Amino acid sequence: MSAVVTVTDLTKRYRTVTALDRVSFSLTENRIYGLLGRNGAGKTTLMQLLTAQNFATSGEISVFGQHPYENERVLSRISFIKESQTYPSGLRVMHVLRAAGLVYPGWDEEYAQRLADVFQLPRERHVTKLSRGMLSALGIVVGLASRAPLTFFDEPYLGLDAVSRQLFYDHLLADYTEHPRTIVLSTHLIDEVSDLIEYVLLIDRGRLLLDVDAEALRGQVVTVSGPVAGVDEFVRTGTELHRVLLGGTARATVRGDFGAAARDRARSLGLDLEASSLQDIVVRLTTSTNGHAAGAGSATANKEATR
Amino acid sequence: MEDGRPIFLQIAELLENSILDGTLAEEGQVPSTNELAAFHRINPATAAKGVNKLVDDGTLYKKRGIGMFVTPGARAKLRGRRRDEFARQYVRPLLTEARKLGIGPTELKNMIDTWEEDQ
């Protein structure tokens, strides 16, 4: 269980915007990470820094124990599939696949061809003539068949329909099982990937809000509804994130350590308890109130706030 | 998988259910972690955690290099444990709802008896 990536106090400032604000974390070998956060939270900037496509303002980056900039030994082990990948004009699908085969030491040509069939990619077609969805599929084929020890997928499914996305998830899981590697999946479609990811990195306005085992997060946020008095009583066991009122009835979203006992408590208070999905949790934690992240109750957020 | 509960617990429960209803026989081989991951479309590490939970509590045992198997006597043990949970999971909410509707214990017992006869 060694660290593939270690980042310390990483900061990236553009003229007026702080895209990343003293972010520290590490990625453990052979895990699937979900890199989550709203638009503009800093996800892409972070991946650009880790893959040496951008310069940090300050802070330390170590990838495979070395600095990634102009470091062929590091970069040949990284695959970064971007949301809007552009290719040199004049290239056909087969050229892109051939070029990828030259770049990545772990490239599996037979697998690449099989995936290209799965996604029905026309080999002869010019890349510029591909539809948005086909272009995404080509990125996915390259990302999977490269078998890079560190693979980033940044919103890789623009224009892909639900069927193709499911194909992507299934092939990702199958190939990861056969060939374990570190995968970072940056996505808005949290519900679709929540069962695939082992670890969650949640970024909000340039700060790392969560760095946790996805399983630990499940069941940590619940929504209780019922008589106000009962809701008031229940929320004392956690941190209230959100509340709406309707007459004498309240619905509150609460974060805490909720196991089976909490369900019993809710029931005995006459409340309905509903567990939140990973997506709900992320929405609740990154929806700002009074300019502060609503996740202030979390240990991570507290740690961040006191820095 | 269902939201809001750790997936590894759900995997463990699914395997327990299969043992309880006999789908997985005692001394029978349990699907591999990878098979479970592919079938349920979950992370293999999570599937492994679910299986390991059952190994830890003695429901499953490992045959080195072959796989996981159901421990003899696991079914009876699981049944005992589930019976203990039955009251908490089913009887208590039943009583809570009954109280809300003003149904007393005697009336509730009569209802159960009548229901039983109708079945």
Overview of the molecule:
The complex is a heterodimer of chains A (307) and B (119). With 307 residues, chain A is an alpha/beta fold. Chain A has helices spanning 43-50, 72-75, 93-103, 109-118, 132-145, 162-178, 190-193, 214-217, 228-235, 260-268, 278-286, 299-305; strands at residues 3-13, 18-28, 32-37, 58-63, 78-81, 150-154, 182-186, 199-204, 207-213, 221-227, 239-246, 249-255, 272-275, 288-289, 292-293. In chain A, strands 5-6-7-3-8-9 form a six-stranded mixed beta sheet, sandwiched between helices. A four-stranded antiparallel beta sheet of chain A has the order 11-12-10-13, with helices on both faces. The longest helix of chain A has 17 residues, at 162-178. Chain B has 119 residues and is mainly alpha-helical. Chain B folds into two domains: 7-72, Winged helix-like DNA-binding domain superfamily/Winged helix DNA-binding domain (Arc Repressor Mutant, subunit A, Orthogonal Bundle); 75-118. Helices cover 64% and strands 7% of the residues of chain B. Chain B contains five helices and two strands. Chain B has helices at residues 7-20, 33-40, 44-56, 74-100, 105-118; strands spanning 60-63, 67-70. In chain B, strand 1 (60-63) and strand 2 form a beta hairpin. In chain B, helix 1 (7-20) crosses helix 3 (44-56). The radius of gyration of chain B is 19 Å and the shape is elongated. The model of chain B has no long low-confidence stretch (mean pLDDT 91). The chains are: A alpha/beta (307), B mainly alpha (119).
